[in-house]
Amino acid sequence: MSQKPIYVTQPHLPPFEEFLPYLKEVWDSKFLTNGGPMHQKFERALCEYLGVNQIALFSNGTLALLTALQSLRITGEVITTPYSFVATAHSLLWNGIKPVFVDVDPVNLNLDPSKIEAAITPQTTAIMPVHCYGHPCDIAAIERIADTYNLKVIYDAAHSFGVEADGQSVLNAGDLSVLSFHATKVFNTFEGGAIVCKDAKTKLRIDQLKNFGFVDEVTVVAPGINGKMSEFNAALGLLQLQHVDEALRLRGQIDRQYRQALADIPGIECLPPSPGSKHNYSYFPILVKPEFGGSRDELYTALRRENIYARRYFYPLISSFPMYRALPSAAPANLPVATRAAEQVLCLPIYPDLTSSQQDQIVDVIRAQRR
After folding, report:
1. Are strands 152-156 and 124-128 parallel, antiparallel or unpaired?
2. By residue range, what is the domain housing residue 298?
């Protein structure tokens, strides 16, 4: 058994001494929150790094999703994926919106554009796709559908920091894109999130909504929420930006080593990289197919016995939870690809500090488990 647990991801943190000047700057300014100088510096730096026009910081990605929907005044029904983290659909329920689940593409496990039009009703107001595992959705196809039916598009881009498709940031797609900076993400601020938008007017509304709806000291224009990012989180984000390129390089190296090592194991299939895209290697999912000779759950258990904490992302499907499963769109018969993926996918550990020997250990357990 491994002496030290190997988790599916671990936060990548810069040396603590590099953080001290940022902490001192926050301390000296006596600005701890409410859009202070560190917050403003971080927003500008993110816009430059990510190649986006406007970005509004949040204390976490879930509040950013909630506010994104509110900012566009989304109501009625929203078409989304069952194959994601529960925050995607929860943000709809919190806003009194009915999720309508559509099956996913068998290659990249993103929302399948060919299934979207059949799910549109007179009550449909938006589409909320997810760039699953950081693999870009079929942005052009989704945009064509949205334009045809006059629908808004809000991308859950929680996995997609720094991801590009055809030389452009995927964060510029749709009406809004929502990022997560949670500790487990490629780029983190301990806790945090953001909404990417195209213009200053939209950002102003988002900034008001994340501060209880305040316009000024005595004027409240909407039932907003407290979603502001603190100066400490913004400071960490500024520091992390200096190290993120190296973290992405190391993740890419780990991704390549996995693909080479797993290539000759029957029944283990790696999700292919999306053509024409710049990836961030946020996760390393494998599909455990029948040819492997054992189930995904048996492999999951075998890895855990060796202190290797792979994760079944995403299992169970969102559509199977009690608050969703009564919806007609949640029936497993409507979601065959997502249902099969939830039974086969296992995300292996991937983070910059994962060593080659640890990767070899993980692959050895997988190889030994095949029957």
Report:
1. parallel
2. 244-369
